């Protein structure tokens, strides 16, 4: 299963001719290639998978996705605890 994670673009720069960005994932920042979203600008939200931006999305869509991912993590933790009993 592949999973794209929403992140907020902090800054955009070029590295060896490739359009890159510094992306914030809830306090953790990573670099990602944003070549496929040339219209991206700092402050935009994007989905990142394997270091590549896939598309832009609204802040509302990003927050909804992050909430779902948090719920999934919480359910997994609960399941792990239940199996440990």
Give keywords:
1 helix, alpha+beta, five-stranded antiparallel beta sheet, SH3 type barrels
Account of the 3D structure:
The structure is a single chain. This protein has one helix at residues 59-84, and strands spanning 5-15, 18-25, 28-33, 45-49, 52-57. It has 85 residues and is an alpha+beta fold. The protein has a single domain (5-84), classed as SH3 type barrels (Roll). Strands 3-2-1-4-5 form a 5-stranded antiparallel β-sheet, with helices on one face. The longest helix is centred in the last third of the chain and has 26 residues, at 59-84. The mean pLDDT is 93.
Sketch the topology as an H/E string, one letter per element: EEEEEH
Distance between the termini: 28 Å
Class based on secondary structure composition and strand pairing: alpha+beta
The CATH class designation is: Mainly Beta
What percent of residues are in strands?
35-45%
Gyration radius, in Å: 15 Å
Q: How many domains comprise the coordinates?
A: 1
What's the architecture in CATH terms?
Roll
Mean pLDDT across all amino acids: 93
CATH domain fold name: SH3 type barrels
Bulk shape: elongated
Q: Can you give the helix content as a percent range?
A: 25-40%
Which strands sit side by side, in order, in the main sheet? 3-2-1-4-5
């Amino acid at each position: 299963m592949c999973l794209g994670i929403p992140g907020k673009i902090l800054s955009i720069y070029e590295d060896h001719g490739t359009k890159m960005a510094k992306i914030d994932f809830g306090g953790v920042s990573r670099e990602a290639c944003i070549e496929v979203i040339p219209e991206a600008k700092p402050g935009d939200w994007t989905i990142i998978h394997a270091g590549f931006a896939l598309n832009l999305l609204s802040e509302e869509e990003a927050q909804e996705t992050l909430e779902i991912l948090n719920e999934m993590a919480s359910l997994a933790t609960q399941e792990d605890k239940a199996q440990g009993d």
